[in-house]
Amino acid sequence: MKRITVFCASSFGTEKIYEEQARALGKTLAEQNIELVYGGANVGLMGAVADGALHASGKVIGVLPNFLRSKEIAHLGLTELILVESMHERKTKMNDLCDGVIALPGGFGTLEELFEMLTWAQLGLHKKPIAILNVNGFYDALITLLQTMTEKGLLKEVNREMLLVSDNIDDLLDQMKNYVAPTVGKWIDKKKL
């Protein structure tokens, strides 16, 4: 993996460990010579992951919509800042640039980005590893919900297993490096409708 996209919050949240792990992830990516692609902001966990990589001499590419740049949240110390016109264009560009995705703690935006990448993988539009760094159990309830979706027949087990999860950065990166995308695509069998 040459580049990993990280989705995360533009705020720090209530627990200091979120910021610490964001910085540690950025640092680890730099140390492993993996470039960071992220949302381009200098605030919250977004700024922390970028700073972690930059302080370890890593390369960081930010992708930021123009309307957010005008709010003066663009990180000015990045290796490269790519400006786009819309949130959708931002996600598309971040996907185009990366070899895998990690979600840190976040809100609606982080979940939306994560699930769009999972949906694209489920539909066979890419075969990249998609992962959650489950900092301090932040995503436990979501993981339980995904299991419920599988048990209720709304999500195939093979698709649920596309989401890699760990609370340890090195373990998560190892899982991503060894990931093999499922060969079963998503389809609807009209005979079963």
**Residue share in helices?**
40-55%
Number of helices: 8
Secondary-structure element series: EHEHEHEHEHEHHEH
Mean pLDDT: 93
Main β-sheet, spatial strand arrangement: 4-3-2-1-5-6-7
How would you characterize the largest beta sheet? 7 strands, parallel
Structural class designation: alpha/beta
The coarse overall form would be: globular
Any low-confidence stretches, pLDDT <50, length ≥5? none
Distance between the termini: 40 Å
Proportion of β residues? 15-25%
Please give the number of β-strands: 7
Quick summary of this structure?
With 193 residues, this protein is α/β, with parallel strands linked by helices.
Verbal overview:
- By secondary structure, this protein is α/β, with parallel strands linked by helices.
- 43% of the residues lie in helices and 16% in strands.
- The protein is built from 8 helices and 7 strands; from the N terminus they run E-H-E-H-E-H-E-H-E-H-E-H-H-E-H.
- The protein has helices at 16-31, 44-55, 66-69, 87-97, 108-122, 140-151, 157-160, 169-177, and strands spanning 3-7, 35-38, 60-65, 80-84, 101-103, 130-133, 163-166.
- A 7-stranded parallel β-sheet has the order 4-3-2-1-5-6-7, with helices on both faces.
- Helix 2 (44-55) links the parallel strand 2 (35-38) and strand 3.
- The longest helix has 16 residues, at 16-31.
